[in-house]
Amino acid sequence: xxxxxxQSPALPLAVxxxxxxxSTALLLACAARWxxxxxxxxxxxxxxxxxxxxxxxxxxxxxxxxxxxxxxRVDARAAAGQSPEDAARRHRxxxxxxxxxxxxxxxxxxxxxIAQHADDQVETMLLALSRGAGLPGLAAMPARWRxxxxxxxxxxxxxxxxxxxxxxxxxxESWVEDPTNADERLTxxxxxxxxxxxxxxxxxxxxxxxxxxxxxxxxxxxxxxxxAAQDLAxxxxxxxLKALQALPAPRRANVLRHWLGRAHAQTPSxxxxxxxxxxxxxxxxxxxxxxxxVGNGQVQRQGDVVVWVPAARAAEAVPxxx
Length: 322
Ligand SMILES: Nc1ncnc2c1ncn2[C@@H]1O[C@H](COP(=O)(O)OP(=O)(O)OP(=O)(O)O)[C@@H](O)[C@H]1O
What we know:
It contains twelve helices and nine strands. By secondary structure, the chain is α/β, with parallel strands linked by helices. It has two domains: 13-209, HUPs (Rossmann fold, 3-Layer(aba) Sandwich); 236-317, Chorismate Mutase Domain, subunit A. The strands form two sheets. It has a six-stranded mixed sheet, sandwiched between helices. A three-stranded antiparallel sheet has the order 7-8-9. Bound molecules: adenosine-5'-triphosphate. Adenosine-5'-triphosphate (ATP) binds at residues 16-18, 20-23, 41-43, 45, 92, 114-116, 178.
């Protein structure tokens, strides 16, 4: 299991250690490969009774390996309308940001490694497909990205989960089993328990082929982002109505999505984008208004341009037309 064969990460490196099988294996592999250059980061979510077991396992493992362990405690309870997994992930990355900042520059961690594997990637793609996601969703999890001046990597992304567990067992290593993994009320767990065995039976190479599709989707999305940036430069910010009307429909959708995402952190649904497109195309005279609720605000026409205004200001200006 040489997860770093393709590219050596910048050191020193932190392993995001949950105490589960995958990150336990990743820590063991990293500590053997780069002794003295590794530390472990553990986030105590405080969500389940098992959280203390996870922390104890991490502490014992790190002590045995001589790896410094940094633990952060968070209250990762989900806000209204937020899934518990999303809340935990958000708190986790905020903790990683804080841990990355906690060091003086000369000792700064250069790379953080996360232990998601090939099965996790397939599950993420299937979840995206089930929601009718576009390319960004189908691209699933990137193998590398940058956040807060630190490189993040998922070196196990091509390794099947069963290979990781077999590797641990062969070494007599233990880990903590997350009790929620068996809970089939969670869609991801149903996918793991029911769909992956079926896929294995029909398409034995599905992990590799799905991963290839995810990479194709990520590459195609990168090109679409470039085209959108170029089109937005031509349309201006906020975009001019006439310039938007001159674009073919798929490129107009692409640039609108890009503009709303980058400039306003809003993600329109497919239905909203289709409605916005028809309002833009129909606005051929000065008198035509545009008004459509998107996220927590509204897209409106202001003279020659299209703007997005937050809900409070939208209410003052134009009555909602959506
Ligand atoms: N509490 C945590 N503290 C630090 N890192 C975490 C924590 N939870 C998850 N991670 C990191 O994020 C990755 C994905 O988390 P996820 O919850 O999807 O998997 P997991 O089942 O906990 O994985 P693992 O088998 O490694 O524990 C983990 O492999 C680990 O690298």
